[in-house]
Amino acid sequence: MGEFLSRSASCANRPEILHWTSPTTLVSQGIEGMTTPNQNKKLTLHLLNEKFTMSKLAQFAEFPMIVAKGEMCFSARTDDEFIIITPEFMAPTNVQQEIGWRALRVDGESALKDGSILPSLIDPLTQVGLNPLVFTTFTTVYVFLREEKIVDAVKALQRAGHSFEHKEVAVPK
What we know:
By secondary structure, the chain is an alpha+beta fold. The protein has two domains: 1-36, no CATH class; 44-162, VC0802-like. 18% of the residues lie in helices and 31% in strands. It contains four helices and ten strands, in the order ββαββαβββαββαβ. Strands 3, 4, 5, 6, 7, 8, 9 and 10 form an eight-stranded mixed sheet that branches. β1 and β2 (17-21) form a beta hairpin. The longest helix has 11 residues, at 117-127. The radius of gyration is 17 Å and the shape is globular.
């Protein structure tokens, strides 16, 4: 609960596209009678030391061996692309890339179990014009942001009541 999917029209023989929308956005757009998520959810966050690269591979490319046997990585394969996010030193070569991403890790909270976590992270960031990329695992949430925006992100999240704990949170080997 706390998240809604809105549908956009199909276009160019593509299936419908579903968009994540928070209840606060729906209420601000005049849809009444909906409950808002626990906006007061306070989380402990860690800024990972590594810089990450987002790489776009061919749709049916094999998973690169350095990534398969290496450290932390995130991937998504869709009907028209294959994206991986890796520490910069592991990024594949000769592919389309966006470098300079940093990651925040939520301490011990899973969005799979608590629907208020994603809005409590995303809403403060989007309210200051930031566009986070979020990956959810069974045990935690990772929020990727452009490195040049990380200070703005930390300030926005602290204003929303989240805290940052400094500890060596390195990419696992």
